[in-house]
Write a structure and sequence with these properties.
There is one protein chain. With 159 residues, the protein is mainly α. It has a domain at 5-113: P22 tail accessory factor (Gp4) (Hypothetical protein yqbg). It contains four helices and no strands. The protein has helices at residues 5-15, 27-46, 75-86, 96-113. The chain is elongated and about 75 Å long.
Amino acid sequence: MGYTKRQFVTAAFEEIGLADYVFDLQPEQLEGALRRLDAMMMEWNAQGIRLGYPIASSPQDADLDTDTFTPDGAWEAVITNLAIRIAPGYGKTVSPDTKMIAKNALNTLMQRAAFPLEKQLPDTMPIGQGNKPWRWDNPYAQPPVDPVDAGPDGPIEWS
């Protein structure tokens, strides 16, 4: 079982010095931080960092107690980057250590999300001796495909 959205939000508040056990966080503060969390995760999703985070269809449908299914290797990145995003709204300055941890954790996620592009051979290159003529109609490599970049899920297919 992973973190819930509430656990990410309260951990981010703890990171900026507004721990729930010392300060009573109001429901409006939690909802505001939840909107920031959802927006951050949508941005990461658009950048190709797909963590399985469930994004509500509208802000009114967001629930703090929803399980996020976020892998444990991404927790530090989510918490620290959310803390950086919510800190100015509370007049807090994030420590340089938190900024460094957030940057390193996000870089790690980006490295995990990056995939090299496939090398496609030109259609003028012979397919080689090992490919017998009865297996192929054409003795040359297939023409290159121009996929739409859709992240690690693969190319978008139009029907």
